[in-house]
Amino acid sequence: MTTTATWLELSIAVDQEAGEEVAALFARYGYQGGVVVEPSWLSTEEGDAGGTDHLYDLDSTRPVTVRTYLPADGQAAEIQQHLATALWHLGQMRPVGQLQTRTLVEEDWAHNWKQYYQVQRIGQRIVIVPSWLEYTPQPADLILKLDPGMAFGTGLHPTTRLCLRLLEQHVLPGQQILDLGTGSGILAIAAAKLNEVKVEAFDLDAIAVAVASENVVLNQVADQVQVVQGGLETNQKYDLVVANIIASVLINLAPALAQVLNPGGTLLSSGIILARETEVTLALAAAGLEYHERHQEGEWVALVHSKLG
Question: Final residue of a domain: which of 112, 145, 174?
């Protein structure tokens, strides 16, 4: 007789600025680092002759819900206590809701996190479709099918959305492109589909590399996108670099980012919280990159720089 495994789903509602911090906390304790960040959705509709498709946009004024999952074993109570203590301390500085728990059987847990993802349009042409959902494309749509896994983004985070919009403007035929910190591979796949380009997608995390590689195959761009586990290699040169990471890493890597760009090449940098924008801008300028423009969504900023020819 087999015993059905049970799992605990832990969830908490927090303001959007605290979402990243809580997600990082949950990743420390959740099974295999798995975290789901569920945004607040605004539903839109797109009608055509065959019916109506529902797409979704973010409501940046409402909290997000962060979820993780634990095996319901002898360690679960201790882990919950660690999380509750850390969340209490965070709650002294930011609005944090109550930690909620519920029990799931194996089959429910395996698919439960998928319900928090929706079809989403970003920019003019890009439509992100989770691999388990159906969507009828409009004539100009560029479809990105994505199986994010529990721990990686689906284009929902503002920094990813900013980068996708910028890629629509800056990817040109024949470019050699680097996606630094690829995660789910969404930016590399978008670049490959936007034009006939070659993309190298780097990530330090082995799980991210596995997920990105699967998504590259799913989107039929394996002949254009090479996924590599590792960091920035300064002996390579690129026409366009997209770096959706965090401010401190961008600051540290600024000289190397300038070095890998071809003359006239473009850097799209994101993952920058508003409070650290000036530091990043100064570091990139000190590395010899020329500032062109900035884009902002909520508390997050993306910057466009180039390397003088």
Answer: 112
Same domain, 180 and 41: no
Q: Examine the domain organization and report whether 95 and 179 are in the same domain.
A: no
Residues 6+ apart with CB under 8 A from 177: 171, 188, 191, 197, 198, 199, 200, 238, 239, 240, 241, 242
Number of domains in the chain: 2
31 and 161, same domain (yes or no): no
Range of the structural domain that residue 250 is part of = 156-307
Q: Spell out the residues 6+ positions from residue 117 whose beta carbon is closer than 8 angstroms to its own.
A: 130, 133, 148, 154, 156
Q: What is the pLDDT of residues 150-200, one digit of tens each?
A: 544 444 678 888 999 999 999 999 999 999 999 889 999 999 999 989 999
Q: Which string of DSSP letters, residue by residue, matches 154-196?
A: -S-SHHHHHHHHHHHHH--TT-EEEEES-TTSHHHHHHHHHSS
> CB neighbours of 287 closer than 8 A, spacing ≥ 6?
254, 255, 257, 258
Q: Domain check: are 160 and 108 in the same one?
A: no
pLDDT at 5 over 70: no
Residues 238-292 pLDDT 10s: 999 999 988 999 999 999 999 999 999 999 999 898 889 999 999 999 999 999 9
Pair type for strands 300-307 and 120-122:
unpaired
The CATH number that applies at residue 54 is 3.30.70.120
